[in-house]
Write a structure and sequence with these properties.
Number of strands: 14
Organism: Streptomyces prasinosporus
Domain SpaA-like prealbumin fold: 48-107, 140-226
Number of helices: 4
Helix content: 10-25%
Biased composition (Low complexity): 25-45, 217-231, 239-249
Pfam families: SpaA
Region (Disordered): 25-51, 209-294
Oligomer: single chain
Distance between the termini: 222 Å
């Protein structure tokens, strides 16, 4: 109806003016502007991807390992688990630096690796191999007295495999020590060698062996025998016993006397041979040798008695000879008078 009114008004105006002129009506729809070259959009860069393969130190693949991928702003860009071949792929990633975190190894025998940065390049796949280490074996060392079983401090041992020493432990005040033994396979054999014995004990010389696996608790025990102590030898110059006096014997003086003691026959008047006396001229003062002889006196074989014995023998012999000479002279005078 509005259009009809417009046309009627135009017709009236034309009739009034006496001239017919056509003016096109304006369109109510706006026209689209022509885009300029500066306003054209820049095409988006090509996306990249990250492919992960997870293995252990023995070379076996590890399925079920869980990973989290963060972008440079710390926002999650993806997460997932490795498949039966140990693989996991993050696709459609904008080029840049990402942070990869392993949150679970998927195995009770393995540890997770430390976080690491990875770079994603445009239109390419970044391939990364993750090697999860085996869990260490837990070793408890004990040193004991081989007789009483008492725990001993101060024992030092080396633990290793082949020609390599992997762990050194020394027992503390309680006689024990603990440590982690690195593992490179699911089962391995190790040796134990004591290199320092506890104070007062002999070194445990045998080499022991044991088998352990990742995460296994293992107790290793070495036994030590007490050091044998020998008695202290006496100095060679010191006598081992007190010397005793040698017993008296025929022909040897008694060490307890100062001079020889005359026998009972010497204390009485000696029995002399009268015929021998009568043959001796009167006034001859030379004493007749008596039929009895003086007991032989000798010296003890001991060196420290030689000097003393010699003096005693000389003094006793002189006294005895004087006594006998005196008795012989008295005898001679009595016979002469009679």
């Amino acid at each position: 109806m509005h259009a009809r009114l417009v046309r009627s008004a135009a017709a009236i105006a034309v009739a009034a003016a006496g001239t017919l002129t056509w003016a096109p009506a304006a369109s109510a729809e706006p026209t689209e502007p022509t885009p300029s070259a500066s306003a054209a959009e820049t095409p988006a860069p090509d996306a990249g991807s990250l492919e992960i393969t997870t293995k252990d130190t023995a070379g076996d693949v590890l399925p079920g390992a869980v990973f989290l991928l963060l972008d440079s702003a710390g926002q999650e860009a993806g997460h997932g688990k490795t498949d039966a071949q140990g693989k996991l792929t993050f696709s459609d990633l904008a080029p840049g630096v990402y942070r990869l975190k392993e949150t679970d190894s998927g195995s009770p025998l393995h540890e997770v690796v430390a976080d690491q940065d990875v770079i994603v390049t445009p239109g390419a796949t970044t391939r990364l191999t993750i090697t999860d280490p085996f869990k260490a074996a837990k070793v408890l060392l004990q040193a004991k007295d081989d007789k009483t079983g008492k725990l001993l401090p101060g024992a030092t041992v080396n633990i290793g495999t082949g020609s390599s020493t992997l762990l050194t432990l020394t027992t503390g005040a309680k006689g024990t020590a603990s440590g982690e033994l690195p593992m490179s396979s699911r089962k391995a054999q190790f040796w134990v060698k004591e290199i320092k014995a506890p104070a007062g004990y002999d070194l445990y010389k045998p080499t022991k062996t044991f088998t352990a696996g990742p995460g296994d608790p293992v107790t290793v025990t070495v036994t030590n025998a007490k050091t044998t102590t020998n008695p202290k030898p006496e100095p060679s110059g010191k006598p081992t016993h007190t010397p005793t006096a040698a017993p008296s014997s025929p022909g040897k003086p008694n060490s307890g006397t100062d001079r020889a003691t005359p026998s009972a026959s010497d204390s009485d008047t000696p029995e002399t041979d009268t015929s021998a006396i009568a043959a001796t001229p009167v006034g001859d003062s030379t004493p007749k040798t008596p039929t009895g002889s003086l007991a032989h006196t000798g010296a003890d074989a001991s060196l420290w008695l030689i000097a003393g014995a010699a003096v005693l023998i000389a003094a006793g012999g002189g006294a005895l000879a004087g006594a006998r000479r005196s008795r012989t002279d008295s005898h001679t005078e009595d016979n002469t008078r009679s």
